[in-house]
Amino acid sequence: KNQVEQSPQSLIILEGKNCTLQCNYxxxxxxxxxxxxxxxxxxxxxxxxxxxSENTKSNGRYTATLDADTKQSSLHITASQLSDSASYxxxxxxxxxxxxxxxxxxxxxxxxxxTP
Amino acid sequence: GAVVSQHPSRVICKSGTSVKIECRSLxxxxxxxxxxxxxxxxxxMLMATSNEGxxxxxxxxxxxxxxxxxxxxxxxxxxxxxxAHPEDSSFYICSARDRRQPTLAKNIQYFGAGTRLSVL
Lengths: 116, 120
Known about the structure:
A: 116 residues, 6-stranded mixed sheet, 5-stranded antiparallel sheet, 11 strands, B: 120 residues, mainly beta, 7-stranded mixed sheet
Protein backbone atom coordinates (compact mmCIF):
# COMPACT_ATOMS: atom_id res chain seq x y z
CA LYS A 1 0.00 0.00 0.00
CA ASN A 2 1.31 3.42 -0.92
CA GLN A 3 2.44 5.36 2.12
CA VAL A 4 1.54 8.67 0.49
CA GLU A 5 -1.97 9.24 -0.79
CA GLN A 6 -3.02 12.33 -2.69
CA SER A 7 -6.42 13.74 -3.49
CA PRO A 8 -8.09 14.61 -5.66
CA GLN A 9 -6.59 12.61 -8.50
CA SER A 10 -7.35 15.48 -10.84
CA LEU A 11 -9.14 18.78 -10.86
CA ILE A 12 -10.09 21.52 -13.27
CA ILE A 13 -10.18 25.13 -12.14
CA LEU A 14 -10.80 28.45 -13.80
CA GLU A 15 -7.94 30.84 -14.24
CA GLY A 16 -7.72 33.22 -11.30
CA LYS A 17 -9.39 30.86 -8.84
CA ASN A 18 -7.78 29.18 -5.84
CA CYS A 19 -7.47 25.48 -5.17
CA THR A 20 -6.19 23.16 -2.47
CA LEU A 21 -4.56 19.78 -2.93
CA GLN A 22 -4.36 17.18 -0.18
CA CYS A 23 -1.68 14.72 0.87
CA ASN A 24 -2.12 12.08 3.57
CA TYR A 25 0.83 9.96 4.58
CA UNK A 26 1.66 7.12 6.92
CA UNK A 27 5.44 7.48 6.79
CA UNK A 28 6.65 7.72 10.38
CA UNK A 29 8.91 9.09 11.55
CA UNK A 30 9.70 11.38 8.69
CA UNK A 31 12.46 13.85 7.97
CA UNK A 32 10.72 16.20 5.58
CA UNK A 33 7.77 16.58 3.25
CA UNK A 34 8.06 18.21 -0.14
CA UNK A 35 5.71 19.34 -2.86
CA UNK A 36 6.86 19.16 -6.44
CA UNK A 37 5.40 20.48 -9.66
CA UNK A 38 5.81 18.24 -12.68
CA UNK A 39 4.93 19.56 -16.10
CA UNK A 40 3.96 17.00 -18.71
CA UNK A 41 7.05 15.26 -20.05
CA UNK A 42 9.36 16.99 -17.60
CA UNK A 43 11.06 16.14 -14.34
CA UNK A 44 9.71 17.28 -10.96
CA UNK A 45 10.60 20.76 -9.73
CA UNK A 46 10.61 21.48 -6.01
CA UNK A 47 8.05 23.97 -4.71
CA UNK A 48 8.30 23.69 -0.94
CA UNK A 49 10.03 21.63 1.69
CA UNK A 50 8.95 21.34 5.32
CA UNK A 51 10.45 19.49 8.23
CA UNK A 52 8.24 17.83 10.83
CA SER A 53 8.42 20.94 13.04
CA GLU A 54 7.17 23.36 10.39
CA ASN A 55 3.50 24.11 9.84
CA THR A 56 3.55 26.21 6.70
CA LYS A 57 5.84 27.23 3.89
CA SER A 58 5.17 29.60 1.01
CA ASN A 59 6.70 29.98 -2.41
CA GLY A 60 5.01 32.77 -4.32
CA ARG A 61 1.42 31.76 -4.99
CA TYR A 62 2.03 28.29 -3.53
CA THR A 63 1.48 27.71 0.18
CA ALA A 64 2.01 24.34 1.80
CA THR A 65 0.76 23.38 5.24
CA LEU A 66 1.69 20.43 7.40
CA ASP A 67 -0.04 18.82 10.35
CA ALA A 68 2.35 16.19 11.67
CA ASP A 69 -0.18 15.00 14.24
CA THR A 70 -2.78 14.04 11.65
CA LYS A 71 -0.15 13.27 9.02
CA GLN A 72 -1.72 15.58 6.51
CA SER A 73 -0.35 18.22 4.22
CA SER A 74 -1.99 20.54 1.76
CA LEU A 75 -0.83 22.69 -1.11
CA HIS A 76 -2.82 25.83 -1.79
CA ILE A 77 -2.55 27.58 -5.13
CA THR A 78 -3.69 31.18 -5.11
CA ALA A 79 -4.94 33.08 -8.15
CA SER A 80 -4.21 30.21 -10.50
CA GLN A 81 -2.59 30.83 -13.86
CA LEU A 82 -2.61 28.76 -17.03
CA SER A 83 1.01 27.87 -16.36
CA ASP A 84 -0.04 26.16 -13.14
CA SER A 85 -1.45 23.29 -15.20
CA ALA A 86 0.70 20.36 -14.14
CA SER A 87 0.89 17.38 -11.84
CA TYR A 88 1.63 18.18 -8.20
CA UNK A 89 3.43 15.50 -6.27
CA UNK A 90 3.75 15.08 -2.52
CA UNK A 91 7.01 13.41 -1.45
CA UNK A 92 7.87 12.26 2.08
CA UNK A 93 11.38 11.36 3.25
CA UNK A 94 11.52 8.83 6.09
CA UNK A 95 13.73 9.69 9.05
CA UNK A 96 16.51 7.17 9.41
CA UNK A 97 18.10 6.27 12.72
CA UNK A 98 21.33 5.27 11.04
CA UNK A 99 23.67 7.43 9.04
CA UNK A 100 21.89 6.73 5.80
CA UNK A 101 19.07 8.18 3.79
CA UNK A 102 15.49 7.13 3.64
CA UNK A 103 13.97 6.18 0.32
CA UNK A 104 11.67 8.91 -0.92
CA UNK A 105 7.98 8.01 -0.80
CA UNK A 106 6.06 9.53 -3.69
CA UNK A 107 2.38 10.23 -4.00
CA UNK A 108 0.71 9.53 -7.33
CA UNK A 109 0.15 13.23 -7.88
CA UNK A 110 -2.82 15.49 -8.50
CA UNK A 111 -3.29 16.56 -12.09
CA UNK A 112 -4.35 20.23 -12.17
CA UNK A 113 -5.80 21.79 -15.29
CA UNK A 114 -6.33 25.55 -15.32
CA THR A 115 -8.74 26.73 -17.98
CA PRO A 116 -9.17 30.27 -19.34
CA GLY B 1 22.37 26.18 -8.86
CA ALA B 2 21.74 22.45 -8.45
CA VAL B 3 20.99 21.72 -12.09
CA VAL B 4 20.70 18.16 -13.34
CA SER B 5 20.85 17.62 -17.07
CA GLN B 6 19.37 14.50 -18.61
CA HIS B 7 19.91 13.46 -22.20
CA PRO B 8 18.25 12.60 -24.48
CA SER B 9 14.84 13.99 -23.66
CA ARG B 10 13.14 11.59 -26.01
CA VAL B 11 14.21 8.47 -27.82
CA ILE B 12 12.39 6.12 -30.14
CA CYS B 13 14.04 2.82 -30.93
CA LYS B 14 13.35 -0.57 -32.42
CA SER B 15 12.78 -3.58 -30.25
CA GLY B 16 16.04 -5.36 -29.43
CA THR B 17 18.28 -2.31 -29.49
CA SER B 18 20.03 -0.78 -26.50
CA VAL B 19 19.49 2.78 -25.35
CA LYS B 20 21.78 4.85 -23.16
CA ILE B 21 20.51 7.73 -21.04
CA GLU B 22 22.88 10.21 -19.45
CA CYS B 23 22.42 12.12 -16.22
CA ARG B 24 24.79 14.94 -15.36
CA SER B 25 25.03 17.24 -12.37
CA LEU B 26 26.12 20.54 -13.90
CA UNK B 27 27.12 22.68 -10.95
CA UNK B 28 27.68 20.26 -8.12
CA UNK B 29 29.24 16.91 -7.45
CA UNK B 30 26.98 13.97 -6.85
CA UNK B 31 28.32 10.91 -5.12
CA UNK B 32 24.87 9.42 -5.40
CA UNK B 33 22.40 9.49 -8.25
CA UNK B 34 19.03 7.84 -8.49
CA UNK B 35 17.13 6.39 -11.43
CA UNK B 36 13.35 6.38 -11.48
CA UNK B 37 10.72 5.12 -13.88
CA UNK B 38 7.30 6.66 -14.20
CA UNK B 39 4.31 5.21 -16.00
CA UNK B 40 1.40 7.45 -17.01
CA UNK B 41 -0.57 8.82 -14.08
CA UNK B 42 1.56 6.89 -11.60
CA UNK B 43 4.18 7.76 -9.00
CA UNK B 44 7.87 7.79 -9.66
CA MET B 45 9.24 4.36 -8.88
CA LEU B 46 12.85 4.04 -7.76
CA MET B 47 14.76 1.62 -9.94
CA ALA B 48 18.26 1.88 -8.57
CA THR B 49 20.69 3.95 -6.56
CA SER B 50 23.92 4.74 -8.32
CA ASN B 51 27.05 5.36 -6.27
CA GLU B 52 30.18 6.85 -7.78
CA GLY B 53 32.89 4.29 -8.17
CA UNK B 54 30.87 1.31 -7.02
CA UNK B 55 28.09 -0.96 -8.19
CA UNK B 56 24.55 0.30 -8.26
CA UNK B 57 21.96 -0.91 -5.80
CA UNK B 58 18.84 -2.15 -7.56
CA UNK B 59 15.34 -2.21 -6.15
CA UNK B 60 13.49 -5.47 -5.88
CA UNK B 61 12.10 -6.56 -9.20
CA UNK B 62 14.46 -4.47 -11.32
CA UNK B 63 16.72 -6.56 -13.53
CA UNK B 64 20.31 -5.40 -13.19
CA UNK B 65 21.29 -7.05 -16.47
CA UNK B 66 18.47 -5.27 -18.22
CA UNK B 67 19.15 -1.83 -16.81
CA UNK B 68 22.89 -1.26 -16.68
CA UNK B 69 24.01 1.64 -14.55
CA UNK B 70 27.43 3.22 -14.62
CA UNK B 71 28.53 6.06 -12.35
CA UNK B 72 32.09 6.63 -13.42
CA UNK B 73 32.49 10.20 -12.19
CA UNK B 74 31.07 12.57 -9.61
CA UNK B 75 28.99 14.32 -12.24
CA UNK B 76 27.82 11.58 -14.58
CA UNK B 77 25.68 8.49 -14.32
CA UNK B 78 24.34 6.52 -17.25
CA UNK B 79 21.45 4.10 -17.56
CA UNK B 80 21.53 1.66 -20.45
CA UNK B 81 18.36 -0.21 -21.30
CA UNK B 82 19.65 -3.34 -22.99
CA UNK B 83 17.67 -5.19 -25.64
CA ALA B 84 14.75 -2.87 -25.17
CA HIS B 85 11.21 -4.17 -25.66
CA PRO B 86 7.90 -2.34 -25.92
CA GLU B 87 7.17 -2.99 -22.24
CA ASP B 88 10.26 -0.93 -21.40
CA SER B 89 8.59 2.13 -22.90
CA SER B 90 8.29 4.62 -20.08
CA PHE B 91 9.45 7.94 -18.70
CA TYR B 92 12.85 7.62 -17.02
CA ILE B 93 13.97 10.28 -14.58
CA CYS B 94 17.29 10.66 -12.82
CA SER B 95 18.08 12.66 -9.73
CA ALA B 96 21.27 13.58 -7.95
CA ARG B 97 22.23 14.26 -4.39
CA ASP B 98 24.75 17.01 -3.69
CA ARG B 99 27.74 15.54 -1.85
CA ARG B 100 27.99 18.76 0.18
CA GLN B 101 24.71 18.05 2.00
CA PRO B 102 25.68 18.12 5.69
CA THR B 103 23.46 15.23 6.64
CA LEU B 104 21.95 12.34 4.83
CA ALA B 105 18.63 12.66 6.60
CA LYS B 106 17.16 15.32 4.37
CA ASN B 107 18.00 13.38 1.20
CA ILE B 108 17.54 16.41 -1.01
CA GLN B 109 17.50 15.24 -4.60
CA TYR B 110 17.57 17.37 -7.71
CA PHE B 111 15.73 15.92 -10.66
CA GLY B 112 16.53 15.84 -14.33
CA ALA B 113 13.96 16.67 -16.97
CA GLY B 114 13.37 13.03 -17.80
CA THR B 115 13.69 10.84 -20.90
CA ARG B 116 10.70 9.50 -22.77
CA LEU B 117 11.59 6.09 -24.17
CA SER B 118 9.37 4.58 -26.82
CA VAL B 119 10.23 1.10 -28.05
CA LEU B 120 8.54 0.03 -31.28
